[in-house]
Amino acid sequence: MLVDYHIHPDYSIDAEEHSIDMYCSRAVKLNINELCFTPHFECDPVRKEKDCYVRLNCHMHSMEDWRWLDFYFNEIENARVKYQPYGLNVKAGMEIGYDIGLESTIKEVVNTYPFDYILGSVHTLDHCAISNKEESGNYFQGKTPEKVMEQYYDVIYKMVETNLFDCIGHIDLYRRYGVKYLGSEMKQVNKELVEPILMKITEFNMGLEINTSSRRRGHNEFHPNFELLKLAVECGVEIFTIGSDAHRLSELGDGIKEAYELLNELGQNITVYDRRIPSVV
Fold it and tell me: What are the structural domains of the chain?
């Protein structure tokens, strides 16, 4: 079974204007069995002018005005009905950018709408987007690998502790652009920092995402790298999702077969979600 659980349709302002229907049509051609859409939800007031918007009907719309989610869920439902005869399951997810202090807003939105899947990610440190090619240097320059990892994993740990999320996205995202500024040491796995997080993920029956987008940015391993993925299994993590992190149609399904093979190599299976309840496929 092929699934892609990290897709940014046109609601995400950093994505191409490719609709849910367009992704579903392509998924059928690629023989993908299940898609979960994950438009960005960013609510850091410090970054409001940069991040807190969605694209709605080709126009910028405030993310704080949650009416856009009504349009999103309506579009998801239409796709579910339309593509079910083609053997494609369509799920409603969201990728939430976490930072310390945003818990009340996140809790409200995830409890207000009938999501299938909530992916928690850390995209910023010191309110600077480490996930962004142009902006990331402002954070990494002058830092040491140790400092970056300590700060990043501190936020990740606090995110897991909230227990608001189903799965943790690209858990070593700092590698994306950190290697450019701080060298190959950024590829190393700091067990002292990571193991407590993986144990907490296991305790809360949360999942870990294998995010294949790193390959498109010149890295030879996924997020997480194989060493960290193996450590997750050793720490008892049993829930794994696979996502291409597609921001355009050409990226849909990219690397998901290889990620599935990695899981098989470790004796693990893919998990999917329905109304936030996980099931292994």
Answer: 3-280 (3.20.20.140)
